[in-house]
Amino acid sequence: MHCRERCHLHRLVLLAVLTPWASLSAQPNDREILRDRIAQLSASEEPAVEGAPIAAVQGISQLYELRDYQPAWADWALVRQLHDQVRRAAEHGLDPNDFHLRQIEARLNAGSRANDPVYRADTEILCTDALARFAVTLKFGKLDPAAFDPAWNFSREIGGRDPVTVFNEVLNGGGISSALDSIAPTLPGYGRLRRALADYRVILAQGGWTQVPDGPTLELGSSGPRVVALRDRLKVTGDLQGTDPTGPTVFDEALDAAVKRFQQRHGVTADGRVGQRSLEELNVPVEARIDQIRANLERARWVFRDIEDSYIIADIAGYRLDLVEEGERSWSTNVQVGKPYHATPVFKSRLQYIEFNPTWTIPPGILRNEILPAIRRDTSYLSRNNMSVLTNSGTIVDPTTIDWAATAEGGFPYIIRQEPGTRNALGQVKFIFPNKYAVYLHDTPSRGLFARTERAFSHGCIRTQNPFDLAERLLDDQGWDRARVDSVVESRETARVYLETPVTVMLLYWTAQANADGTVRFRKDLYDRDARIIEGLAEPFRVDRPEGVGG
């Protein structure tokens, strides 16, 4: 999408950021030359200054028209401040050259050329465009998230208030640095990921880590050179600390504890045994881990704006659900998510009601591909799974009157519904947040699968390990306790309970996160999504219009 569609945001950001510091007077013809240069760029199909594409042409035109073409970057101290911030874009996992780093550096070393009025006009345009690019990227991310997941529905609106007023309030007491800091995500998780990025770049600068050679499973009591390599590998990431024992070739208890710490951080069964799955994680290069962190910093920029105080987050790649209340995580549980070919979508909705003892109407895809073939093989499948056949109007049909073989050819004109019970695929409670994908949180009869570390087993819904605890917490302020929840469940009657205050639910996908203590947790890229983000971050800068921005 053409960058001019973002001009309104660019203009408002830049007005607020630049106006307070443009204190030096321009030379008499500077304004006319600046006007001409902007007009030339506005008429160009591919506007560029010294080979650098200009993304915010229309926004720049509107900004300087409002300023009567008074230069904003006449003070070189302000240019140096911008240069410092652009250079530090790498700390956000971004490429500083997306924000004209080389061109700004050249201007700080321009010497007598800086007196050329055309050069000064180009400096205005480059610096203004750089600041607009960086502000928009920190606010919304470099990439359009909808291009990575068609289910994406998070708002990209600027907000209801006049951005000029908002930015002026933010910037009254500071400069470019404070302005950009206020635009970037402020939730602690983003800052912790930035620190993790810095730590892993230090590891890279120091040579990274060595590979642990393939071979038989290493465990307590093993010995040999592969144990030495394992020990060296775990030291680099701090999983193993302290001095080497007298027998560094022996897999001792300290190494066993270090392996378990590593396994926990990487979503591998923490049994202390280094088999193929653990070797796979151990031998991921540090460069790939850096990219993984950068991909998740971009995801954070997509999401972490105007977050409410209370919400539910289901982390798909992390197989975990968190309830956040008043800004603090108050409860967590394990979940099962969609298989790679039934990927759980990423989206946002509002949890409106809880249904106890639900029925399950079989979705068309599952009906066609799984249920009907099973019935054709054995019609007792219906009774064994407590399923009923219904017409579209809801009338129950005797399954013995149906020619099941004919359904393979002529389609199936009925509905199949699984009745309430412990064997219902949704378990005994489900949590409904309306969405076109028929995805929700629910209980499951497949509870044994929660013992697995990697839990991608569903058709897309989020199976929840402790659903009755979640129901009790969500209904607590409506006078419910666990005894009441259990009583409704034991009745075997379907009951729908609406929340007096609906709760935001976010289905997200994180393959790297960092704890408050600095521990970095990586997860397998279940749906192979990180690579596309990293490729996108390396592509030339472009702008996709957020909602509420005119052109």
Please name the defining characteristics of this protein.
551 residues; alpha+beta; L,D-transpeptidase catalytic domain-like; 2 domains; eight-stranded mixed barrel; four-stranded antiparallel beta sheet; 17 strands; disordered N terminus
Helicity range of the residues?
25-40%
Morphology call: globular
- The gyration radius over C-alpha positions equals 29 Å
CATH fold-level assignment of the largest domain: L,D-transpeptidase catalytic domain-like
CATH superfamily of the largest domain: L,D-transpeptidase catalytic domain-like
| Number of separate strands | 17
Count of all domains: 2
Strand content: 5-15%
Unreliable stretches (pLDDT < 50, length at least 5) are 1-25, 160-174
What distance lies between the first and last C-alpha atoms, to the nearest angstrom? Answer: 12 Å
Q: Give the strand order, joined by hyphens, for the main sheet.
A: 3-4-5-14-12-11-6-15
Given helix and strand content, the structural type is: alpha+beta
Residue-averaged pLDDT: 88
| Number of separate helices | 19
Describe the main β-sheet briefly: 8 strands, mixed, barrel
Task: Write the CATH architecture name of the largest domain.
Answer: Beta Barrel
CATH class of the largest domain, named: Mainly Beta
